[in-house]
Each structure stands twice: as structure tokens, then as C-alpha cells.
Amino acid sequence: MLAENKASELQRKQLQKPAPGVPRCKSAAPARSNQREIVTRTRAFEPFAPRTLRIGELQHALEDIVLATDAASVRVEGLGGYELGPVIGSGTFGKVRLATHKASNQVVAIKSYERSRARDAHQWKRIQYEARVMERLDHPCIIRLFEAIEDPSTLHLVMEHVPSDVTSLCEYVKQQRRLIEADAGPLFAQVLSALVYMHDRHWVHRDVKLENVLLDKHGLVKLVDFGFSALQTAKPFQTFCGTPCYMAPEIVLRKSYWGPPVDVWSLGILLYAMLAGFFPFRARNYNDLYRKILRGVYEMPSMLSADAQELLRGMLDADPTKRLTIMDVRAHPWVRRFASPLQRPPAPLYRQISLGTLPPVLYRELRTSVLDAIAALGLSRLDAEATLREKRHNSLSTLYYLLLKRAESLCYARETPPLVHPRPVASQEECHSLASRHVLIESLQESDNCEKDTNDLDRTMSLAPGSPPECDEQLAHDDDMRDVLAILKQTELHRR
């Protein structure tokens, strides 16, 4: 949820009602009681059946879709182009609901923000900023934004739907009590891959947590909630933001800070919670929680391997200058242990097209076929080509990708026997590891177009041409965090 009061969110989910004036964190359960509940259980994700598609199959499927589609539904723009379904989540500013794209009959998730719930114009500007961030992110482990629809009272973000028995990594860890390293490693590597991608492009998330990692039925992750995300420039951040249990010491201290080390700290908290089943810093109220974070002292679970313990110590170093960088984390032996090629579900074709990982010949063939379908539905082919070329997120681009998604689904539903099994996938340590798992089509040769960005995250970052301006640091709200000043005063007195 975007830029909402994280402290209030934790209070709503607490198990016990706190005394008046004493906020309580969801990590408040004592360590001993948490450890008693640790049970190692493995939940197998749904297997997938690898198969091969012929280009002719997809073309015939697109023709069938055009014949079955009501041309009137294609010309409807805005929220009228969707049939709204049940609410699957709610937050401070609005709701998330399932919806069906009428023209393609594909299920999406729509996150709706109500302007009336925003505190002021600055907060509404922050909400709008999330859409601009998502438009610039395209990675298989990051949720895909199709389009943003805004009217005077509401902003709707139309995103891909992630079908699963569990809504998030948080729910999955709760079900399992804790994850063994063999199960946690591949999930962690995917979240890490998304952050490496963001940092290479100078974006920082600033709210990495279990709840913000969706998990699909095959065990693939999607990083969500970019309400606190920002472009890291040569100027450090000042905003006090994030979720208390995941906050880095430099944020608690209200010092200026750099975004990448903050994400590494939160990622360390996430990994600790996955492996241990509880948080490293636990307290009955926020005052005590912040004190513990500032001291940086926590218990290391003895059941973890030496490599896992070393990685956690490096990520949870209270000094951001000594903390591991995101590239150090990716190169760590524990992470590399889970970077071997694995047989994973191939990325959907519409994602492979947007990511640019398909062979050029195949890309041109599919692009032409989908554009032909759009023209057959009575829409402008030139407008569609311009939309794709300029990477806009509107009704035309949404139709383009969802038509291909539906065509692929129809081909699978027809249960055509597979021709060839896909080759083993690329290494998970590559940014576009999941996207490189191509669906083979006829005898076209696959090409490896995975991006391998090796930018040094320690260098001074400058604003990239064409990028949006850095977000207003005053837009993130910190109304319920006033007790930090009292903690700092007590810390200074203690040092004296």
C-alpha cells in the first residue's frame, strides 16, 4: 500500500490490544515463544508442464480472439473497459480488486486510490508518483503495470494478477513457521534480482518487507508497493519512511542517508525472518524497538549455516559504510549456492516481449501478428505502433499485451502435445534470469539477450536524462514517529 501509515498498519494487525498511548509492533512476541513455534515443513509449489508453441498456433488463436471479441468493448477506454470483481485487499487509501479486461477476457488486479482519503495535495502527489515509478520498471520479479487510469476522485493502477494459494511471502513464512535454507534461497535470490535491477537504474525501494513480495503458485516472486520508491541522485535522502521492524539505523536516527544501503538492511531483515521465523529486533513498543535497532545487537539463530550467518551479519551491520552492498550480497557464497540453473516455468510471452528477451525474428513475427489483430478489431495500427515504440502505458498497450497473453493461454488450453522441452534456464543471479526462460517456437533458434548490468552501486549517482525528478521528500508522512526525537535525546544523554 502506498505511503500509508505503516505504524497504524502494524497496530491493526496486532494480536493484543496495547495500553493507551503505547504503540505495539507486530514483532512484539518474545523470542522464546517464537522459537517454540518453529517447525521445519516443506510445501511443494505447483509443478508446471513444459511445452512448445508453434507460431501458427498463436496466430490462429489471435484470429479466434478477434472473431469472438465485441468491437464495441475494444473502443471503451478507462475503467469502463474492465468488469470489476471481488475485493482482495484494502488499505488506508483504497482497495485492490480483481477485474476482467473485457476486450481480452484476461484477469488483472486493480489498485484504486481515493483522493478523498489523502491528507493533502502533497500526499496525493506521492500516490500519483507510484504510477510513474512502476512505468519505468520492467523485470520478471517486479509486478507489471499495464496502465494508470485517473479521474477527479480516484487513481486506478491496472496490474498483472498473481494467482496463488498464498497472497504474499509473509503468509507463506507464517504457514511454514520458518523456511529451511534450501527453500528460502531461491525465493531470496529472486527478490535480490529485482533489487539489483532497480539499483542498477538508480531506483531504490525503501520498503522491502515480506508483505511486499507476492508469491505465485510456482514459487515465483513479484516485488510490489513502490509508494516509497525514489530515484537516487547525488543528493542523499532525508525522509523518515518504511516499516518500523525493517527500518535501517540511519533512518531511525533521522540522518541523511543513501537508498541502496537501506534496501540492503531491509533485505537482511527479510532474510532473517524467512530463516528464523521471527524478526531480529523485537519489542513491545516502538520506543524500545528503535533503541534495539540503534544498538544493532540481535540473536543469531544457531541452526543457520555458517554462510547464512555471515551473510546476515554483513547485511545487518549498523554502520551503512561497512554494510554489504547489493553486489556483495549477490556475490556471497550463500546466494551463489542457489544460483545454479533450475527448471522453472517460462515467463509468459507478453513479458518476454516487453523485456526484449525473445529472438529478433520471433519478436517481429509475434509483434506483427498482434498488431494485425488490433487492426482487425478496428483500432489504429499506427497508434499502436507509436504506443509500443514510446513505451506508453495506456489502453492500447494493455490490449496489445493482454491479447498475446490470452492467445498463449488458449494454446495451452487446447492441450496440443509438446514438441520439445525448454532448455534449462539461465542462472538466477542474472537480472533477467526468469525472463530468459523462453518458450520455444518451431525451429527458431534462441538468442541470449539477457541484460547484464554491472554498474558500481558505490559511485555517485546522477539524474538520468529523461527520468522523472526526484520525489518530494516531504510527501512521505511520518506523523506517528515523533517519539524518535525522544529516543535520540536519551541516546545522547547515555553517551555522555
TrEMBL record:
GO MF term list: ATP binding; protein serine/threonine kinase activity
Biased composition (Basic and acidic residues): 1-12
Domain of life: Eukaryota
Residue positions binding ATP: K111
Gene3D superfamilies (UniProt xref): Transferase(Phosphotransferase) domain 1
Pfam families hit by this protein: Pkinase
GO terms classed as biological process: intracellular signal transduction
CDD domains given in the database record: STKc_AMPK-like
Domain Protein kinase: 82-335
Disordered: region residues: 1-36
GO CC aspect terms: cytoplasm
Keywords: ATP-binding, Kinase, Nucleotide-binding, Transferase
Keyword Cytoplasm applies: no
Name the UniProt record assigns to this protein: CAMK/CAMKL/MARK protein kinase
